[in-house]
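Reply to dn_fold:

You asked what the input looked like. This is it:
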Amino acid sequence: MMIKMRPIAVPMQEKERRGLRDMEDQKIIALYFQRAETAISETKNKYSRLLLSISYGILKIMADAEECENDTYLKTWNAIPPKQPESLPAFLSKIVRNLSLDRYDSLHAEKRGGGEVPVVLEELSEVLPDKGSIPGEENELSELMDSFLHTLKPESRNIFMRRYWFMDSVSEIAEESGFGLSKVKMSLSRTREQLKLFLEQEGYRL
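and this is what came back:
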């Protein structure tokens, strides 16, 4: 169930920057295939800030976020090869996010963490199918989510990603974006409804 999407128009300078970034990433990936330990240091130099931001947004505990970041490098080392990611930052982000959510689950029993995760997951549960209802289709659902995000306007996409990927609170999103709380809440509500309709049209029962 692949969806053909029109490419998002990007200014030439931005395209050039992305091209240079992708070239650098391919060199890093090549180091993994060569089993060169510099692959990890190069990954850390380039993506440490991104990975810490994702993990800390979920855990709100820097020591745990740093541990998840370090675990990400090990998992990446074990995964590449055989995997050869098309997007290194997306590949790394998915790993650190899953590690951080697992860590949150283990800490939650001790009543630690930022408190946003259960709220965010509850919001998403209204529009996403249960994992058990889509056996073998997680990759397909991930691809559909990517396609859906490309249909959104940049403003709506940024708000949605800050909330449901980085686990930011509504107030944090409002402060960072300069929008009022009501506008952020309305944007999230509308985007969830759009996502629900999008997935239903693709045959998912919610």
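The CA atoms of residues 123 and 194 lie 14 Å apart.
Hope that clears it up.
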